[in-house]
């Protein structure tokens, strides 16, 4: 992979001077076009120690308009980062549409370090790279440009470079003693780098191997690669993003979801006639809430986090069910996120970004009142997003939830269902109670007219996104009390099991 | 202060039932009006241990529309919080305009705990409360409503309550053993609480002492207090906020800044004819950058953070000066924040919120390319905000910077000045360099026409906001090289001194 980076390429001072002005002008023009077209760019700067990655970034800093460029080094983790899925720190650093995020090492540095330190074997590295491919695929599907640069040079060049660095920038090497192993173990590092680069050198986000021996060559090549990548993206027809687009231009190989198995209507399986006696309800509610209070504290002690998702038809009783949970859990341990229309900052990012922002810290509980499933429900039914976007979302959501669960977070999802008659009765009751009147809007009425379309969307969602690590629970909601007890029983059972596993 | 909270007030079940429906309806109506009028509300829930603060929040949760209410408990700090000024965690939790943030304990809990634990004496507590008054004043000036509730009861009531809690909610008390002292030391706690409540019981944000013996009385009283406060704010004419308002309705006692001392034009004191030889520049640049690299690493080791602010007339060379700093400091240690138009999330908060978001973690450096001083420069000159708002900002900014400096952060501010002729020459040069053409906009031309108005605003800014802990440095910018060396010398000197103080 790296032979091309050991042939001593360089650029004369004159050639550099001659080319640089045109390059800067074109880069700025590209950056302006990028902003107009709302394309987010990820520039990953990775490679050998001593290759001058910091200098490359300084050069780009000078060439580009600083408004719209952010530089991130993923270095020592904060406890807020440690307590969440590993990818959380990258999610926090996502560029807005039309802006450029420069990532030192990107999502590649940590896996390489794990393998190099011997904490991982090749299989673990490969699995991690498969996750990286998924992440990059998702970002590209969302319209992003990913430019990956790997800086490399021959062993003797690196040896000289590190020696020189040690003289001129001593403090740095004092600070990072563990990094100095890299030069001694050039061979081993290169082998790992080769494995990483090969397994993530994908068509839509290829690696660029750049020889780092000569700074002028290195910097200008980087500038040209970035420019080319942006220009290529600009030459594409606009990406079908969050708005409805009749002619989806996404060339993805994703199948549209017409597979027959989704015709099995899971919703039909809910027995809506189930009820619970009022006295029995009181008793169970007290028991379950007392237990949940205790479990939530124990989960805190064991740093087990919980994500609860509540979805359901309008007036199904989501709010009441959520309150029965929050009443039981100490307010310091839980947060409710009501999901409404996105802000412009949220709209300027991937649709999952607003949820990534709200992942709980260790031992806490976050309750989503509506969630990322809006993508495959309201956005699909109302046509707010093009079919390829919501079709792709099943996979993106499964992947997202797998990352949560992989980080040890309990993920439980509730679908609250009521019958169409019961919904009408509740709408009417709300209109007759002054303080409930605010809860009913014209939108609710309109949604009701699309009952069957929503039903189809819900069935498909349940079929495609119910996974062992993030199951859907279908809750029969015609009897509110019955629904609440079901929810509390499910939540307590999940916490109990997680705590048992922790102890065992 | 608390005698009124020990007389056994209660509310019968019937009275509660009778009143609750009207209260809920009115609260929802008030919440809707709040949203339309863009008024942010802070509800502080503080008081004795065992008073049922969590239950109050649960009741409000049920009564209010959850979209637009966030609940925050400031409990165990994360390292990201610990590494910033103490108020940072509150800044993170500020409500958007039109929304309600409920704060458990608010900014009162920690000072009370410090005093109670004996870590502070009365003087330290008083000083802290003076900071609290400043904070609340700033928020109210920004149009916020602050509702402060203190829940209290007699000693014997608390003793019974804590005993009962220990039975029903054991896990909680297992978790918080240090809190159980509170009941034993009722007298001492009440004395401290009295001091805190008295010293922050200000006209525009009074304390409400609520007897917490009877839950129905406690909850409904809270609801009524919140409702009254919102209704009172709604009855006021609209607050002159970020838009220009010809008739400022702010009844603040702030003086408009016409005091004679600001007529001294500090800008005149800059000798713009100063230059440096090119060879001397090269030599000093190398020396200073090498030293800065070392200092930045040492500051990292000693967890000393730095905030640099760059302001200046258009084309004064801010970007070039900033790059001479960033070239020297490892990219992992610094971040540049270019300040452009605010996003809607930023607009929905206090104008300082967007800067609070970007305070560096321990040992890092954040460089602001333009800053919060926009409030007293562009917003003032262009009339984007009403006079009382920018007039008030001097004090708010001084207070903000004092908090940074109080948390051990180095704050250095640079004003880059060039002559009017030099600016014209640079505008013309930019137009003749293709990649620089993008740096010049019609706005720059317009700003140039307001040269004298800006000059007056700058002079006043320099006079009012140059403080020992956050000094302004006037940089003669006609010779770019001279300016850069001045900046580097100032930054290295500040870091050197901070490190010496740390060591000494």
Order of adjacent strands in the largest pleated sheet of chain A: 2-3-1-4-5
What CATH architecture of the largest domain in chain A would you give? Answer: 3-Layer(aba) Sandwich
CATH superfamily annotation of the largest domain in chain A: P-loop containing nucleotide triphosphate hydrolases
- The domain count of chain A comes to 2
What is the number of beta strands of chain A? Answer: 10
The largest contact between protein chains, plus residue counts on each side, is:
A-B, 61 and 61 residues
Q: What name does CATH use for the topology of the largest domain in chain A?
A: Rossmann fold
Helical residues, percent of chain A: 40-55%
Which whole number gives the mean pLDDT of chain A? Answer: 86
Spatial extent as radius of gyration of chain A: 26 Å
Shape of chain A: elongated
Region (Disordered) (chains A, B): 237-260
GO molecular function (chains A, B): polyphosphate:AMP phosphotransferase activity
Domain Polyphosphate kinase-2-related (chains A, B): 11-234, 277-498
Protein name (chains A, B): Polyphosphate:AMP phosphotransferase
Summarize the structure.
2 copies of one chain form a homodimer. Chain A is an alpha/beta fold. Chain A contains 21 helices and 10 strands.
Descriptive terms for the model:
homodimer; 504 residues; alpha/beta; Rossmann fold; 2 domains; five-stranded parallel β-sheet; elongated
């Amino acid at each position: 992979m790296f032979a091309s980076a050991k042939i001593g390429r360089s650029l004369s001072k004159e050639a550099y001077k001659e080319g640089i002005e045109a390059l800067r002008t074109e880069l700025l023009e590209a950056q302006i076009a990028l902003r107009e077209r709302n394309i987010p760019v990820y520039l990953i700067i990775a490679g050998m120690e001593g290759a001058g990655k910091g200098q490359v970034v300084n050069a780009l800093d000078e060439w580009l308009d600083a408004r719209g460029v952010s530089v991130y080094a993923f270095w020592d983790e904060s406890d807020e980062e440690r307590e969440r899925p590993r990818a959380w720190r990258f999610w926090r650093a996502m560029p807005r549409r039309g802006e450029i995020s420069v990532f030192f090492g990107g999502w590649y540095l940590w896996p390489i370090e794990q393998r190099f330190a011997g904490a991982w074997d090749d299989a673990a590295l490969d699995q991690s790279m498969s996750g990286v491919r998924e992440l990059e695929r998702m970002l590209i599907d969302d319209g992003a440009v990913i430019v990956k640069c790997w800086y490399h040079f021959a062993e003797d060049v690196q040896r000289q470079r590190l020696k020189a660095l040690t003289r001129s920038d001593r403090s740095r090497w004092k600070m990072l003693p563990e990094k100095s192993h890299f030069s001694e173990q050039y061979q081993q590092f290169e082998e790992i780098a080769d494995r990483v680069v090969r397994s993530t050198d994908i068509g839509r986000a290829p690696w660029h191997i750049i020889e780092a021996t000569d700074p002028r060559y290195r910097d200008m090549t980087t500038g040209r690669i970035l420019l080319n990548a942006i220009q290529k993206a600009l030459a594409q027809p606009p990406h079908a993003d969050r708005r409805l687009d009749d002619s989806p231009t996404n060339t993805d190989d994703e199948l549209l979801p017409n597979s027959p198995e989704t015709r099995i209507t899971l919703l039909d399986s809910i027995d809506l006639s189930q009820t619970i006696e009022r006295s029995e309800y009181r008793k169970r509610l007290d028991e379950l809430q007392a237990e949940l209070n205790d479990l939530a504290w124990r989960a805190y002690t064991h740093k087990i986090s919980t994500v609860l998702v509540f979805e359901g038809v309008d007036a199904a009783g989501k709010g009441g069910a959520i309150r029965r949970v929050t009443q039981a859990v100490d307010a310091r341990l839980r947060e409710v996120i009501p999901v409404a229309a996105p802000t412009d900052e949220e709209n300027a990012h991937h649709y999952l970004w607003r949820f990534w922002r709200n992942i709980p810290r260790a031992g806490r509980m976050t309750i989503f009142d509506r969630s990322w499933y809006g993508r495959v429900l309201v956005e699909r039914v109302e046509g707010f997003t093009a079919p390829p976007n919501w079709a792709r979302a099943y996979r993106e959501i499964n992947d997202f939830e797998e990352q949560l669960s992989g980080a040890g977070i309990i993920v439980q999802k509730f679908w609250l269902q009521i019958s169409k008659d019961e919904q009408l009765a509740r709408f009417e009751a709300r209109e007759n109670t002054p303080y409930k009147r605010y809860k009913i809007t014209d939108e609710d009425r309109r949604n009701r007219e699309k009952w069957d379309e929503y039903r189809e969307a819900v069935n498909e969602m349940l079929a495609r996104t119910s996974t062992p690590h993030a199951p859907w629970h279908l809750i029969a909601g015609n009897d509110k009390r019955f629904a609440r007890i079901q929810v509390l029983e499910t939540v307590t059972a999940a916490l109990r099991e997680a705590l048992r596993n922790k102890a065992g």
